[in-house]
Design brief:
heterodimer, A: Four Helix Bundle (Hemerythrin (Met), subunit A), B: 8-stranded antiparallel β-sheet, 38 strands
Chain lengths: 438, 570
């Protein structure tokens, strides 16, 4: 089983999240900047300007009342009586006009501004003249001046100021609409961002959970395999010792007893030369059988044929040997470039995997035929053992004795891959791929 | 407050606190009934909620018959035309001596229907008899004292006919130092029943408007031409100002140049301080001198006002009553021609913040030498007060005890239950009605009775009284400055009309000498500029001083009953 590390995916997820947060922050800051600019540049300035305009309007209204009193009150005072009041109002008006001019929006035309300034200075000039006339006792002329000039100028100033206020109001409304648009945009984008963030977080979490579950399952399986392996190893070791002991006892014990008996019979004085020669032949035959037994045992314990003939030779020898021993019809095919020597640390495992597979065929498959295919090139080696037997059970784990586990372990040791499959024709195909490069 | 017997510790604490509280010894006894003052102010209200209905009316002390006892004038309103149900007139009460009064309105010829607001008493024709000016809604009136106990309406003869406005404070003073009293009339707003505006709080019923709803009106200054007629010199004197909404006016010499200046308290408009430049001209300096606005630059609802040397610095400071939550304005004269409102930084702020003040005046109620402050309160609307169980429009008055010019304590509750009882206070005036050396108090209510409180001071402090008569100066010596040096302190008072709210106190001056038996030195600076000096004047006397002739008469004051225990020297 191939395991993927979740770290890389997590890192990618983190990078994506950070990027998204960064982008969104930049966007939000830009919007806030725009908003603050709009607020300070247009709305606040407009509001302060409007306050000054209202201050001017208030003063103009007071002047208007005073002028009405100047011209209409029957038991009233001379026009000059209002001089001090006018001066006080002028002081405040001048200040208001000065501040208003500084705050006035750039959209206002120079022509409008000039008209206002001209009207104001004409108004004060006329007022001065009216007070002068009244001071000289020319009350009617002063009142006429107030009526004809002062009130007209006053009306035009008041009109201009009112227009400015309307303009400010319109600008403010426009800016307010812009602000509203920014707010609703930002609001919408916040929802989008939140939605995206939720999706990313959910995706990452699900992926991590799945990955973790897979990792834990693999660990569980590995742990199980290790356990089985350890148990089987111990059992195998014991079996091996028992087998060697039985071999030694059954084979060599009897052989040596027989050799001893034959030698004792040959030692007897009454033994004829003929009988002696027969005993010696029998002894030699028994020793020869013992030697064959020792060789067979030795090959089982470690196939020297590998050291002597290399992997290809050993495979050929083994297939032939096992065919002879079991009567299984095995077809052995070799393909590719077999120049160079397969490293012994690889060769032994490949050999053992072949041994185990053939053993399984012999023991469990009920197959009369088998195919062994060995392919090789400079980079890798492939070994296939195929039979037409009953095949592996559905869940290989249930059938996994030490054999399959050991085969997997060996494949992993040589960084190779081992697969079990069921060919279309039936039976089992065991396939090993092992790299030959370092 | 209920004290439970199971809380003896609390009882002890309260008792200890009460003992620790310094005592002024001031006892103000309500003598309205026994004095015979049966007066109820008629606002004329019939449901139309006319603005003037909440504003009146004032009162005045004057010795109209020259018997030495201070008589009482109570200004009254009247029913509005077309809504007449009763006939109400101002009331004149003659002091029979010792504080018992008799209604002489009819005999005096003052039983004329006027929608009166305030009164100014002054001997404008220098005949030795105090004349009466009544400011009114509509036509103001001038009554000349004929000397036989009767007054004649000389409004037309004096050239004051046609002077119709919503007038408030009025005062007499000799602004041009020609020896004749001139008349200043403060006008409030341009209001007539025809121009009444519909104001409402709940959107349905009409309520009383604030002055913002109406345009201001210039006050008037009439120069006494000496032939019984007056000339309007408002413009000439530089007092013309159609934006002001004046209610109170006070005389003072704030810059100590010997010329009497004029302070005008405006409602919702900046206060005005007119500096007398001499030669009949004034210069308005309120903003420059820091008295126009509150410390945070706001024009408040100025109502009543008074000026006095409360800290014995020699320079008069100015108190102005304002709307509730605005605090009383207490402009301390810094001595360099400018003022600073110390109410927010002293106990005066907390004491006065919750009240809507009208009449206010300085008087040395306990004769310790330090001028105390009396404030009459009363709302214009039905509100729930939070002071001494105020309810509706009624609010408790303040009697602020001046302790050394630095700390202030409201002793209204200590002065007496009747005194501290909530009232719809408007006018306030003081005079020594029983000539016992301490000052008695008259408070009027809007739409209610007038209250006379006799000062039964429980203290050893002694007073000294001065009655001034000008010869070169105006006969009432209005504008004369009297300085009294006693025990190392220098007290000073101005002979004045106006001040308070729509009211006028007696012209004679009362100084408290504390425990001292005599004033070390007394200096009189007459309006003519003449200065006279006297030394070692015994306490407990009324000194009648005549310009150029010195002390012509000394009349012992009645002895007050001595308290069992005495206060230590302060």
């Amino acid at each position: 089983m191939v395991l993927f590390s979740p770290t890389s995916r997590s890192l990618v997820g983190l990078a994506v999240t950070l990027l998204a947060v960064g982008l969104f922050s930049w966007y939000a800051l830009r919007q806030v900047e725009g908003l603050s600019d709009l607020q300070t540049r247009i709305i606040d300035r407009n509001r302060r300007d409007s306050l000054q305009l209202l201050r001017i309007q208030n003063n103009l209204q007071n002047l208007g009342f005073s002028m009405r009193d100047m011209t209409t009150r029957t038991a009233g005072y001379p026009v000059a009586a209002w001089k001090a009041e006018f001066e006080r109002t002028r002081f405040d008006l001048d200040d208001a006009f000065r501040i208003e001019h500084e705050l006035g929006p750039t959209s206002r035309s120079d022509q409008q501004q000039q008209f206002l300034e001209d009207s104001v200075s004409q108004f004060w000039a006329a007022a001065e003249r009216a007070f002068q006339l009244s001071g000289e006792g020319r009350e009617e002329q002063a009142q006429a001046l107030v009526r004809d000039i002062l009130q007209t100028r006053h009306a035009s100033i008041a009109g201009t100021v009112a227009r400015f206020l309307v303009m400010n109001n319109e600008a403010e409304q426009k800016a307010a609409a812009e602000v509203r648009a920014i707010y609703s945009n930002v609001e919408r984008n916040i929802y989008y961002f939140l939605l995206a963030a939720v999706v990313v977080i959910c995706g990452t979490s699900v992926s991590l959970i799945l990955q973790n579950r897979r990792v834990f399952r693999s660990l569980d399986q590995l742990s199980h395999q290790r356990q089985v392996l350890a148990r089987k190893l111990i059992t195998m070791q014991e079996d091996m010792f028992r087998s060697i002991a039985r071999e030694l006892h059954d084979e060599f014990g009897q052989v040596l007893t027989a050799v001893g008996a034959l030698l004792a019979r040959a030692q007897k004085p009454e033994t004829s030369t003929e009988k002696l020669a027969k005993s010696l032949r029998e002894t030699q035959q028994i020793v020869q059988e013992a030697l064959d037994g020792v060789r067979s045992l030795s090959v089982r314990l470690h196939p020297n044929v590998l050291d002597d003939y290399g992997l290809e030779g050993a495979v050929e020898w083994y297939v032939r040997h096992i065919s002879e021993q079991t009567g299984l019809n095995i077809e052995c095919v070799k393909e590719g470039d077999f120049a160079g020597v397969v490293p012994p640390e690889t060769a032994i495992h490949v050999y053992r995997i072949l041994q185990e597979s053939i053993n399984n065929v012999v023991r469990h498959s009920d197959s009369k035929r088998a195919w062994v295919r060995l392919r090789r090139n400079a980079r890798k080696l492939e070994l296939e053992i195929e039979d037409r037997g009953v095949g592996l059970p559905e869940d290989p784990r249930t059938a996994e004795g030490l054999g399959l586990v050991g085969m997997r372990e060996r494949a992993e040791l040589i960084r190779g891959s081992l697969t079990f499959s069921r060919p279309a024709e039936g039976g089992t195909l065991v396939r090993l791929e092992a790299p030959l490069t370092a | 407050m209920t004290l439970y017997p199971r809380c003896p510790a609390l009882l002890v604490c309260v008792a200890a606190a009460a003992l620790a509280q310094p005592r002024s010894g001031v006892r103000l006894t309500d003598v309205t009934k026994e004095a015979g003052l049966a007066f109820v102010h008629n606002t004329g209200a019939f449901g139309a909620m006319y603005l003037p209905e909440t504003m009146g009316a004032g009162c005045a002390f004057l010795d109209y018959n020259g018997d030495g006892w201070m008589d009482i004038l109570l200004v009254n309103g009247m029913d509005w035309p077309a809504h007449k149900k009763q006939r109400t007139t101002p009331k004149l009460y003659r002091n029979k001596g010792g504080g018992a009064f008799v209604d002489v309105t009819h005999a005096s010829g003052l039983d004329v229907e006027i929608y009166g607001m305030g009164a100014a008493i002054g001997d404008y024709d220098n005949d030795g008899l105090p004349d009466i000016f009544i400011s009114a809604v509509g036509q103001n009136r001038l009554f000349r004292n004929k000397g036989d106990g009767r007054f004649e309406d000389v409004t037309r003869a004096a050239g004051l006919i046609g002077r119709e406005s919503f007038s408030a404070a009025a005062l007499w003073f000799d602004y041009d130092s020609d020896g004749r009293l001139d008349l200043f009339v403060a006008n409030y707003v341009r209001w007539t029943p025809e121009s009444d505006i519909f104001c409402t709080i709940d959107g349905r019923r009409k309520s009383y408007c604030t002055p913002e709803a109406y345009r201001g009106e210039t006050s008037w200054l009439f120069r006494n031409k000496g032939d019984g007629t007056f000339e309007d010199v408002t413009v000439k004197a530089n007092l013309f100002d159609s934006t002001s909404k004046a209610l109170g006016a006070a005389l003072l010499d704030f810059d100590a140049d010997g010329l009497i200046d004029l302070f005008v308290a405006n409602d919702t408009q900046p206060n005005k301080l007119y500096r007398n430049l001499g030669k009949g001209r004034f210069q308005e300096v309120a903003v420059a001198s820091g008295i126009a606005f509150s410390e945070d630059g706001k024009a408040r609802a100025g109502m009543g006002t008074d000026a006095a040397d409360f800290d014995l610095s020699g320079a008069p400071s100015v108190a102005v009553t304002n709307f509730n939550n605005e605090m009383l304005a207490f402009f301390r004269n810094t001595g360099d021609g400018s003022f600073k409102d110390i109410a927010p930084t002293t106990a005066l702020g907390p004491i006065t913040r919750g009240s809507l003040g009208f009449g206010c005046l300085f008087l040395d109620v306990d004769l310790d030498g330090w001028p105390d402050l009396l404030v009459a309160n009363g709302h214009i609307d039905e509100v729930q007060g939070a002071h001494h169980g105020d309810s509706g429009r009624a609010q408790s008055p303040h009697l602020v005890w001046n302790r050394g010019g630095r700390s202030f304590l409201d002793i209204a509750a200590e002065a007496g239950r009747a005194f501290v009882a909530p009232k719809v206070g408007r006018g306030v005036a003081v005079a020594d009605i029983d000539l016992d050396g301490d000052l008695d108090i008259l408070i009027t209510e809007n739409g209610g009775p007038a209250h006379l409180f006799r000062n039964d001071l429980q203290s050893d402090n002694r007073g000294i009284r001065f009655e001034l008569r000008g010869t070169v100066s105006n006969r009432d010596a209005i504008g004369a400055l009297v300085r009294v040096e006693v025990g190392g302190r220098k007290l000073s008072q101005l002979v004045k009309t106006g001040s308070s709210y729509l009211s006028q106190s007696e012209l004679p001056l009362t100084f408290g000498l504390g425990h001292n038996n005599r004033a070390d030195r007394v200096t009189i600076r007459w309006p003519s500029g003449r200065v006279e000096e006297f030394s070692n004047l015994a306490a407990g006397q009324t000194y009648r001083c005549v310009e150029g002739a010195g002390i012509r008469e000394r009349i012992p004051l009645a002895s007050r009953p001595r308290p069992a225990s005495t206060n230590g020297p302060r």
